[in-house]
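Customer escalation, tier 2.

The customer says the design service returned an amino acid string that "doesn't look like it belongs to this structure." They asked us to rerun it and document both sides in this ticket. The original structure tokens are below, unchanged.
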């Protein structure tokens, strides 16, 4: 479902990313394929420097369908960015990708908190985050971060996922599967 980023999938991902339903919500808005290739090289380098963790989301056939990143990693926290091609909307890939990524972050890395900033008008993303029982609306819990991402006007809602909350959720799911 997730794999480390490499340059071989850039062409497929670029074509998915430039869709008008996806492009406005992508963190790195690349106008040309070469620019997307350059950004992907940068992300790979940032991962080596441990300031970013970036993965390609794959479908059942192993084809790239989107990306998921943890960026601005500082003091065991970072911000999540995710996008999926329109052909894959509404098929559960987003939630499965997040759960897989959180498992990697919280079990294989020293990440404690993941922040998600979601545009208030992006109803699709807000609904996706609100389906995650372990994600909390953090506009008041982490008001300083909320203010920093909305320094000029209130564009984003802030959500957060804590390691312990996610691990507790994982235990409940494992127990339900076992019984």
């Amino acid at each position: 479902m997730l794999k480390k980023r490499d340059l071989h999938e850039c062409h497929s991902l670029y074509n998915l990313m430039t869709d008008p339903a996806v492009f406005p919500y992508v963190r790195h808005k690349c106008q040309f394929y070469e620019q997307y290739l350059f950004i992907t090289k940068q992300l790979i380098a940032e991962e080596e420097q441990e300031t970013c963790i970036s993965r390609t989301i794959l479908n059942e056939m192993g084809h790239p369908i989107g990306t998921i990143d943890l960026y601005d990693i500082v003091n065991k926290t970072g911000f999540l960015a995710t996008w999926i091609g329109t052909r894959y909307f509404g098929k559960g890939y987003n939630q499965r990708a997040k759960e897989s990524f959180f498992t990697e972050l919280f079990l294989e890395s020293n990440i404690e908190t993941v922040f998600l900033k979601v545009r208030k008008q992006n109803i699709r993303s807000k609904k996706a985050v609100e389906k995650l029982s372990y994600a909390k609306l953090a506009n008041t819990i982490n008001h300083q971060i909320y203010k920093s991402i909305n320094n000029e006007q209130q564009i984003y809602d802030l959500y957060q996922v804590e390691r312990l909350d996610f691990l507790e959720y994982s235990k409940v799911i494992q127990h339900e599967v076992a019984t």
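Tier 2 assessment: The sequence is consistent with the input. The helical segments are 10-17, 33-48, 93-108, 123-130, 143-149, 163-178. The chain is about 40% helix and 25% strand. Sent an explanation to the customer and offered a walkthrough call.
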